[in-house]
Structure prediction request, 225 residues.
Amino acid sequence: MYALLIPLLIGCGPTPSSIDIQAEPVVKVHSLEQVAIPPVKVLAADKTVIEPPPQIKWEVLPPEVAKLNADGKSIAIVGEGKATVKATVGAISNKYELVVALPDEIALTGLEAGQILAVGQAVDTVAEVKADGEVVPEQAITWTSSNPEVLTVVDGKVTGVQAGKATVTATSGAQTKSVDVEVSATAAVPPPAPATGVDVELQMKTGSKEGPKIEMKVGTKPAKI
Prediction:
């Protein structure tokens, strides 16, 4: 008799009502590295979390874009496109979309092709990795100069060393962007940009009463009272 009751007691837990996937409705991926399956909560009708959670079946389609790894805990990225990641428990399910867009461009600002720098002149260059026209954040950029004796580049800062020509290249993964630059010994170093004034507000007090305010900028004379 007790042997018959054990299976009944095991099956008397709360009935799953919904699946809460701890991920955005659309997850963007910008590399071919595998991604982890997000945490999941199986909820009862009263929104309480069922513990221990029931067995969850995962499905990733189409396989041309992504597929579930054998460990059932991660997803292998196969190619660009959109895939649906679906979690099922019994008759209920939930899903999210996986969008794979690999970087296809590096855009440079601050340095133009054929630009002429003076010896000693430095310019700051910014590189942005893009996928389908959208900026992909937190991408590592490697900077190189084809001739460090002519110009150097460190973290995007390009500095003319001596007269000549060199190519500045930004690399991120399989993407590269190069710009040809000339350094001229006769070009004048542009003057530094004027310092931005710093607003300072002074409040004068006379006895217990507050006097007029004086607004000034560093490097300028205060207005007459």
Summary: The first strand starts at residue 18 and ends at 21.
